[in-house]
Amino acid sequence: MLADYRxxxxxxxxxxxxxxxxxxxxxxxxxxxxxxxxxTFRKGIEHADSGxxxxxxxxxxxxxxxxxxQQIRHLEKDFVDRGGLxxxxxxxxxxxxxxxxxxxxxxxxxxxxx
Length: 114
Description:
Shape: rod-shaped
Structural class: mainly alpha
Helix content: over 70%
Largest sheet: none
């Protein structure tokens, strides 16, 4: 997707914004807004200038890729630290069975007066 928008800019003779471009700076500021939605970026995405539209979408793709990379790194770390789903499910079942065993043992001890 990113390559498609970059190709579009190239074939149209338009430049991709550098990080110090004023519009790129504005886009980064909008990306930092809590609760940003499509409406936050509508003016750029639907702008009459196709170069602005493409650059805004490129910027949003870059942010999305960064956030997905962060999430993948977090999931990898969580997997290494806590194990996979099956391991966690087995651990939870084992822990629950042990709790139930202790409860039943406590009831038996009370009934037998131990």
